[in-house]
Amino acid sequence: MRVAMIGTGYVGLVSGACLADFGHHVSCIDLDMQKIDMLQQGKIPIFEPGLEKLVRNNVKEGRLHFTGWDNDYVANADAVFIAVSTPSRRGDGFADLSYVQQAARDIAKAVQGFTVVINKSTVPVGTGDEVEEIIRNINPGVDIAVVSNPEFLREGAAIEDFKRPDRVVIGIDDDRAVPVMKEIYRPLYLNETPIMFTSRRSSELIKYAANAFLATKISFINEMADLCEKVGADVQAISRGIGLDKRIGPKFLNAGPGYGGSCFPKDTLALVRTANEAGSPVRIVETVIAQNNARKQKMANRIIDAAGGDVHGKTIAVLGVSFKPNTDDMRDAPSLEIIPELQSKGASIRAYDPEAMSEAKPLLADVKWCEDAYDCAMGADALVIITEWDQFRALDLKRLEQNLNSRIMVDLRNIYDPAKMRAAGFYYTGVGLG
To answer: For a 10 Å CB count at each end of the chain, is N or C smaller?
Structure first.
């Protein structure tokens, strides 16, 4: 099929490359010509494992290409995906739909013949109605079906998630779109992937509900971690004990400094706003947001306590600043609040991240960026693990000991065994390890 993908951000680029790998002919379109120039030169503007190779192979095979806005690519497409950003709007937390609305206006001026317009951006309930209204108002004779097809891609595992998903959700109010969507995802039918057809509004809400539920699991286990520390229990045992219950499951039950990234913070806020406007508040989600916001401050205080109650004049080494491993994404990363809080108390910060330092430098001032974990530890009074990159899981403790001023480790991801760390002579603090 001929597919136009509007937007070459994280979702658009991954989705476009994977659809091309399915055998479709995909034109990825973006108004940001600097980004298009990079992609045309084979440079990938984001870090995602396997993406560079996937893009390169499909460009070589002639199934994937990148362009600025061109009416012909939209006019000739069987399906047009909208995969643009919907950031939280300043002031009220609602999803900013300006990019989606602009994409709808541009599509209206270019589309020809029956075309399925597929919204892959994360949007509030009713956005599909708005997109359809915009297109029909500009082009009254247009022949379209507007579909909701939310993405469920985890940064760091996005290609696997797209090609071998738990499910594909498709919201359709016009049955003519069904065979088009089935053809787009035909390889997944062959793999017997659950593909759920539902109404457009239900599909839009599924995305928000899923992210809010996962965010709730994270905040829940973080509160259990705090309780474990008070009563002398081990949160890792709690996580395993409840995660073995098939009704609960083990994922998203790792205690830590709270959630961040491109989805959970903005999607929980948008869901709260949508629910309040509908007169049906979601109090659990409101509490999750409040708990997560407070979590970062609590983690900063944990570091200060581990350093003797005062970090003024001390050097803190930070390993990992991205919101999770295998990505360079800094959006709402816990480090963006923890590091400035330590600096406000007089600490000097040395930091290292395998991929996110170029993204982090404009966001974190007065940080000494280091070459590796051992360089980061040099002369530090405490070592803090914020992001659980694999290369931090088996550090040479003797080498760390030689570089650190004080053998203090604050492990906000619980990747080390407390008993082994203490046997090695470290003052070790984890999360929820009572």
So the answer is: C
320 and 184 in a common domain: no
Query: CA nearest 122: which of 147, 102, 94, 151?
Result: 151
Q: pLDDT (tens digit, 9 = 90+) per residue, 80-92?
A: 999 999 998 877 7
One domain for residues 149 and 297: no
- Angstrom distance (rounded) from CA 421 to CA 402: 15
Is 263 considered catalytic here? Answer: yes
- How many separate domains does the chain show? 2
Helix-helix angle 283-306:264-277, to 10 degrees: 150
Mean pLDDT of the chain: 96
**With contact defined as beta carbons under 8 Å apart, do 381 and 406 qualify?**
yes
Percentage of the chain surpassing pLDDT 70? Answer: 100
The domain boundary, picked from 198, 228, 250, lies at: 198
pLDDT of 149 over the 90 cut: yes
- The answer to whether residue 40 sits within a structural domain is yes
Which listed residue (18, 28, 228, 263) is catalytic?
A: 263
pTM over 0.70: yes
Residues 311 and 182 in one domain: no
What's 106's domain CATH number? Answer: 3.40.50.720
- b/e 73-98 (16+ beta carbons within 10 angstroms → b): bbbbbbbbbbbbbbebbeeebbbebe
Tens of pLDDT, residue by residue over 178-195, are: 999 999 999 998 888 999
Whole-number pLDDT of residue 3: 98
- The residue out of 173, 198, 223 marking a domain boundary is 198
Provide the residue range defining the domain that includes 364.
290-429
CB 391 within 8 A of CB 409: no
* Residue 96 resides in a domain: yes
Residues 186 and 298 occupy one common structural domain: no
Q: What is the pLDDT of residues 239-278, one digit of tens each?
A: 999 999 999 999 999 999 999 998 999 999 999 999 999 9
